Amino acid sequence: xxxxxxxxxxxxxxxxxxxxxxxxxxxxxxxxxxxxxxxxxxxxxxxxxxxxxxxxxxxxxxxxxxxxxxxxxxxxxxxxxxxxxxxxxxxxxxxxxxxxxxxxxxxxxxxxxxxxxxxxxxxxxxxxxxxxxxxxxxxxxxxxxxxxxxxxxxxxxxxxxxxxxxxxxxxxxxxxxxxxxxxxxxxxxxxxxxxxxxxxxxxxxxxxxxxxxxxxxxxxxxxxxxxxxxxxxxxxxxxxxxxxxxxxxxxxxxxxxxxxxxxxxxxxxxxxxxxxxxxxxxxxxxxxxxxxxxxxxxxxxxxxxxxxxxxxxxxxxxxxxxxxxxxxxxxxxxxxxxxxxxxxxxxxxxxxxxxxxxxxxxxxxxxxxxxxxxxxxxxxxxxxxxxxxxxxxxxxxxxxxxxxxxxxxxxxxxxxxxxxxxxxxxxxxxxxxxxxxxxxxxxxxxxxxxxxxxx
Length: 455
Description:
Blueprint (H helix, E strand, L loop, with lengths): L2 H27 L4 H32 L2 H35 L4 H40 L2 H6 L7 H28 L3 H46 L8 H11 L3 H13 L4 H23 L4 H13 L9 H4 L7 H7 L2 H11 L6 H8 L21 H15 L11 H10 L7 H12 L8
Helix pairs in contact: 1-2, 1-4, 2-3, 3-4, 4-6, 4-8, 6-7, 7-8, 7-9, 9-11, 10-11, 10-16, 10-18, 11-15, 14-15, 15-16
């Protein structure tokens, strides 16, 4: 059975049923405006199908090209596809709501439609997630067996926030609570305003308490899930993890079990250090993002699969030496003194040392890429002031990805740049700091919208 076709049918049927039910309820209580409500329903369904098929075709176009860069983008996009679809559903409802407003439905009926949608929102989010989960599991396995190892490994780290998922699920509970309050108001308060106003106020207070309680529980559970993921990543380094989990944990376990040893060690260390402090978390997140960008650039400049794997490992470890730099230097808001900057210049050496000794990496491509990723073409970089022809291509790739992500991140000493500002700064250093050919390839990815910026 085609799991993707089945998922697509399930999603479309679910969404159509949602809007059909809401439209039928509104038509029953506004029989005189049946034609207008039916027209609004039809326009909304057509809008949803158009947007859905457009996104689905964009996804399929990545899958059909079947190279490391596009397979990475496909798996990355597929894992975010449930959220994109639910955003489309919400956008279509907003259009549906606005059109209902223009046909002059009563405010109480508009509020009813919003509450009905809220309950369906949680159900649809669950259906969409469950449907696409099988597609993700099938495709991750399929592409891994085809040999797209680097693409599958790199696509592990982007996941939809667990807390955001709880928010989507919580919309249904909130909508149900609002409907309860409206029912109380309709049945009692309007007829006996003096006798039941206290009860109405208590109901509102209960709703507010429910919201706060739900958000607190959601946050606690999401933190627990995050801890579980870190634990799984650490266990993956030492042993094969029994795949006894369900849903996303099952996919994560499968992916972790296929990592080669150096990559396992790197990811384990990143997972371990990001709990230490905000700066350590930045180092870990930054390293994963740079590794993602490097894979895209490496594919474009023609690196082979083995080289892409080496590049990915080097990018994960390029900043690991910063754990040896004092926080008062890393977090300093003002300009660094000469002595402080000399400390910073040592971190590529520390990263190289850790990669060679702790991780026992023998691949010279990885080690030199880590050591020389802060070198500039004009010889003004560090630690060895190399010039263009002496800087390895992997180091040049990491240098560009590293600079771009650093510019796109908020740091203690400056605000983050916009994408256009970051690209402008990179262009100003083209041929001076960064390799012009590689930089142009990287910028073209954004121009053609073939790469995602990871926040």
